[in-house]
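Researcher: Good morning. I'm working through a list of sequences from a screen, and I'd like to move beyond sequence-only analysis. For each chain I'm collecting a predicted structure so we can compare shapes side by side. This is the next one on the list. No need for commentary yet; just the structure.
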Amino acid sequence: MLMRQCVPLARIARIGLISVVCGAARLAAQGPVIAQVRGTVFDSVAMTPLKGAMIRIVRADDPSVGRSAFSDSVGVYVHDSVPAGVWLASFLHPTLDSLRLEPGIVRLDITEAGVVEMPLATPSGRTLLARACGPGQDAESGVIVGAIHSADDETPLAGATIEVEWPEWVLARKQLVTEMSKRRTVSDSLGHYTFCGVPSGSTLRARSFRQADSAGVIEVTIPASGYAVQDFDIGSADAVSTTTTATVSGRDTTGATGVARGRAIVRGRIMSAAGAPLPNAIVRILGNGSVVRSNEAGEFRISDAVSGTQSLEARAIGYSPERRTVQLRTTMETEVSLMLPTRRVELDTVRVVAGREVPWDVRSIERRWRAGLGKFLDGKTVVERSTLLTTDALRGMPGVFVRAANQGFGQNIVMSSTWGECGATLFVDGMPFRGGGITIDDFVRPGDVAAIEVYNRPSTVPAEFLTFSSCGVVAVWTKHGTGHVPVMPPKSSR
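Model: Good morning. Structure tokens for this chain:
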């Protein structure tokens, strides 16, 4: 008679495998007892089979006797011709490391020939959440676990601060508005941390710092299962002072600002989704290092980035921006390749100019221009009014001011409001532009512009550009975004 015993996992592994099902098709024993052990290896956090897992079984009385098998593309594995006896089974896969799990052990007693079904799985995200934060967690709660290390020698860092923030809807003045919720925790003596109470099924912004050293701001996605792992490496930065000049009320004022620089090097290529190199793309490490542009082969190189966990971002006109979390070292170059997805442009099939279909966006710009709610500049006017930078074309417009940016060579756009001055809400080719240190001037050159729309009061902002901001809007349209079709002013202004 075939007997199998599934040992309770808590007895044999600190963190291990669950969902082991006992069962076998029984056959009459004839001669030596030989069985087939088979099953599926499953990631219960990502809810997907694990390809390439190594399933190892060894004899309980002699661990030197064993055999290995690997799961296929759908997570299925097979051990053929397993002799009778007591066996111990486990599996290895990079997912275990990424989830901070140790391989568990399953006991298997084989006394009869047959097929033994032995599925293996990681614990579910909700199980891991309960282990980390205690039972009774609701469906909207999540957790981030991880470790903090030095970017220079990879030693654990105790007492490092981990800070996360995310937007939340709150009721204020009888209206729903968004506010940023910000929370902190500290790493323990081994550099480990557990951050309970974050929202599941969302993307957060996170960073870690210790005294004057800091990692960059990165995005951390919490899956619907509620369990996420994120490590941080913290590197040291040099504060470099730069001088900026701003024009305020017709007078030039000069001040010094500090920017972060390091000694880490990151290089790579920027490509389209089709694999073609993208020249002239803007590439940067968020919050530090120099802003560079890719060459004709799509290649870039940043030589003064701060080491540690950082966010690399690439932008190009006509393409959606792409970000990648990278781990930078001062002792080695980091190579990264990014593929930028094409930003979709819808074309109008009714109006045709010179045999070309006119983009729907061009008709929308011209419709808003005719309505007369904002101020409009076509591409030719932008070039004529710009001495060097795109934002120079906005100088002298009512309620609009151009100020030197703290970083780079670009300028910020400031508007007057009831409560004083505020930063204009920016759009490029109809999409919100959140530069995070990059200005419109860094991204768009005067010769690239097809039109600029300026709405200096929230009451004049059209529905296409409505946001929760109480400031005005500047919408920049590039020639690529308008399909290289000229934007025509109303007949009364021609």
